[in-house]
Recover the amino acids of this structure.
């Protein structure tokens, strides 16, 4: 069920606060000459396993962060409409679950960036509409699919600088989170 107060300030604060945190991390990273990126997620490296908790908050440049900021905000707000707890649990789940998948199966490279969350939110919103079948969820999913249909191209290997594995893992993790939350929602009798 969607949060009854779509304009709930805490939903907006959650998303904008996390975005601000990403920008703060980026400024520190910039001042350090992007040295924090060496702590990104490197598949099958025991030394980089803990990166599953923060890899999605590191970015390689201002362009990288800026490119991720707008869809992160829009899709994040659509997830947060279900409540701040839903937003934070979904964000945490997507980052960790997709991090584990990339750590196990990704190509050897340093994987960083909030695009994993963007793909995860996309997967969450579309999957949640599938499970809920409520008019508002279906409308949101339709708008998301129309607006962000170009994300499909990021699911295939096309350049060494893009973690298509992270995108795919994020999408699947978001869908899995939607299913897990749906299974925990008490069913209502239809009249």
């Amino acid at each position: 069920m969607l949060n009854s107060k779509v304009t709930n300030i805490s939903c907006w604060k959650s998303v904008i606060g996390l975005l601000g945190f990403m920008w703060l991390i980026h400024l520190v990273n910039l001042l350090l000459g992007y040295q924090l990126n060496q702590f990104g997620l490197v598949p099958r490296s025991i030394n980089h396993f803990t990166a599953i908790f923060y890899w999605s908050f590191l970015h390689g440049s201002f362009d990288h962060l800026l490119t991720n900021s707008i869809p992160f905000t829009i899709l994040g707000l659509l997830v947060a409409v279900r409540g701040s707890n839903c937003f934070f649990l979904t964000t945490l789940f997507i980052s960790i679950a997709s991090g584990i998948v990339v750590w196990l199966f990704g190509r050897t490279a340093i994987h960083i960036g909030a695009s994993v969350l963007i793909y995860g939110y996309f997967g969450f919103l579309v999957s949640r509409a599938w499970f809920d079948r409520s008019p508002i969820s279906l409308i949101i999913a339709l708008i998301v699919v129309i607006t962000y249909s170009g994300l499909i191209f990021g699911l295939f290997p096309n350049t060494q600088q893009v973690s298509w594995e992270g995108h795919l893992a994020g999408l699947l993790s978001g869908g899995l989170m939607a299913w897990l939350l749906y299974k925990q929602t008490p069913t209502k009798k239809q009249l």
